[in-house]
Design brief:
Layout lengths: L1 E4 L7 H10 L8 E3 L11 E6 L2 E9 L5 E4 L3 E4 L5 H14 L8 E7 L4 E6 L5 E4 L4 E5 H7 L12 E8 L5 E9 L1 H6 L2 H5 L4 E2 L4 E4 L5
Length: about 210
């Protein structure tokens, strides 16, 4: 299924509003970040330490089931938490299981899981483009610009973005292809751009075909 996307569609206005609300704390307004901080994901490598308890200090990768095995208390689900929330949760579990009375837990991220979007067709740098770790979504115009931009013969008015949707268990539900007029998004007046955007998410596939010459 192909959905044509033009500037000023209300469907995307809420994303632009979110970006504008975060702009004061966001160095790059083309990147949509979680205002509550980066959330741990499967594939992230983290370090967990408990002050004064060397046996509890570990470095591990969050598994596909979103958990990490910790000393004395076993598996804990840590994905979808920021590091402060994870610290609080781990400390609570150590107290609840009567391992430590008042543990001081620190959680840091030693390596972020890599997430990509894929570009093909009339772009200068085809292939996988790595998302910034903290990004939840990025403006399509900026993704293409960061990946080298369009070629001279690119059709900028009919850029296709294919997105796959998953259910809660991680199984594919369906996919949808959007047709986006990137030229209109990037060349309009500043007032138009304020309400015109198309956000790209990890896993999206972007295809730019050649224009007729």
């Amino acid at each position: 299924m192909i959905v044509r996307v033009f500037p000023n569609l209300p469907l995307y206005c809420f994303l632009v509003l979110a970006i504008s609300l975060l702009s004061a704390r966001n160095e790059d307004p083309s990147i949509l970040r979680d205002p509550t901080g980066y959330k741990l994901r499967s594939g992230d490598r983290i370090k967990v330490s408990v002050l004064g308890e060397v046996d509890c200090n570990i470095e591990a990768t969050i598994s596909n089931d979103e958990s990490v095995r910790l000393a004395y208390i076993g598996e804990l689900l840590l994905a979808k938490m920021n590091t402060k929330q994870a610290e609080t949760y781990i400390a609570q579990e150590y107290r609840r299981q009567q391992i430590f009375r008042d543990p001081k837990v620190t959680v840091t991220i030693s390596k972020y899981v890599e997430r990509f979007v894929f570009l093909s067709g009339s772009v200068n740098k085809q292939g996988a483009y790595a998302f910034p770790p903290e990004a939840e979504a990025m403006n399509l115009v900026q993704v293409i610009a960061r990946a080298g931009g369009f070629t001279d013969i690119a059709n900028k008015t009919k850029v296709k973005v294919t997105r796959t949707f998953y259910d809660e268990s991680g199984k594919v539900k369906n996919s949808m292809t959007y047709e986006v007029n990137v030229e209109a998004l990037s060349s309009g007046s500043s007032d138009e751009r304020e309400y015109s955007t198309f956000m790209i998410y990890p896993g999206d596939q972007i295809f730019v075909k050649e224009r007729l010459v």
